[in-house]
Amino acid sequence: MSELMHTAVVTGGSRGIGRVIAESLAGAGLQVYLTYVSRPEEAGQTVDAIVAEGGRARAFALNVADSEAVAAFFRDEIKDKVHLAALVNNAGITKDGFLIRMKDEDYNAVLDVNLKGAFNCLREAAKIMSRQRAGRIVNITSVVGQMGNPGQVNYSAAKAGLIGLTKSAAKELAARNITVNAVAPGFIETDMTRALSDEVRADYISAIPLARFGEPKDVADLVTFLVSSKAGYITGQVIGVNGGLYC
Predict the structure, then answer these.
(1) pLDDT tier at 125 (50, 70, 90 boundaries)?
(2) Burial level of 246, CB count in 10 A (0-12/13-18/19+)?
(3) Residue numbers annotated as active site
(4) Angle of CA points 237, 55, 14, to nearest 5°
(5) pLDDT 10s digits, 139-177
(6) How far apart are CA 28 and CA 155, in angstroms?
(7) With the C-alpha atoms ordered 118, 123, 127, 132, is the resulting torsion angle positive or negative?
(8) Residue of 172, 174, 1 whose CA lies nearest to 79
(9) Has residue 1 got a pLDDT over 60?
(10) Which of 1, 13, 48, 211 could anchor a disulfide with 18, C-beta 3.0 to 4.6 Å?
(11) DSSP line for 79-145
(12) Is the dihedral of CA 86, 14, 91, 222 positive or negative?
């Protein structure tokens, strides 16, 4: 295994926070396999950007909610082909709406991608990492999984579930020298938050002690640390990147 390329899998790695995580891990010397569901052109742009900086990256279309597709991906692209150094479960969707009006399909879709999708990938990665007796897993949860948010019962439930998944998996996998941690971003400058009205942004910022939104790099820097050799004694933790919003 030591002769195989040390590789990080980043789900939802083609844009936003996922893209910056992928770029950061590549900059740290890992080959990056990023997954996407839509917008293949953005995935290609992310790969090109990493390669232009001297890194190694590939993009794969993958619906993480499809357990059979996930199993096939890890079997065909990862097992015995690379050294799986890290998995970053970043893929996620939102289908916001108030509780009493939320449709079953909107609730289920968010849970399927954000929570079941992370489970699907974690399970397959754990099989490979257990054979290696080494690995790092980072689940991207959210501050709303800790504090809740009106209009996001599905998203909050999924992200809270990720915290439980993280803590239980950390206990199960520690004996195999596999660490499992969660990173909980607060309000980060992304396409989604940039679309907020000035009034809504100001309201959110007023609740943040550091009085500003974070940057994707703030999240990526922490993820990169957690998958490094310097974080070998950190597992089962939920670490906020939120400017003090929930502390």
Answers:
(1) very high
(2) middle
(3) 155
(4) 60
(5) 999 999 999 999 999 999 999 999 999 999 999 999 999
(6) 31
(7) positive
(8) 1
(9) no
(10) 13
(11) TTTSEEEEEEE-------B-GGG--HHHHHHHHIIIIIHHHHHHHHHHHHHHHHT-EEEEEE--THH
(12) positive
Q: Residue 242 in 3-state DSSP? A: coil
**Average pLDDT value for residue range 237-247:** 93
Closest CA to 60 of 9, 94, 20, 26: 9
CA pair distance 22, 27, nearest whole angstrom:
9
Q: Which amino acid is at 33?
A: Y
Look at the block and give the residue holding tokens 């968010």.
110
pTM over 0.90: yes
CB-CB contact of 200 with 32 (8 Å): no
Q: 147: Cβ–Cβ under 8 A, 6 or more apart, which residues?
A: 245, 246
Alpha-carbon distances of 220 from 1, 52, 95, rounded to whole Å: 27, 19, 25
User: pLDDT of 99-109, one tens digit each?
Assistant: 999 999 999 99
Whether 53 shows a pLDDT value over 70: the answer reads yes
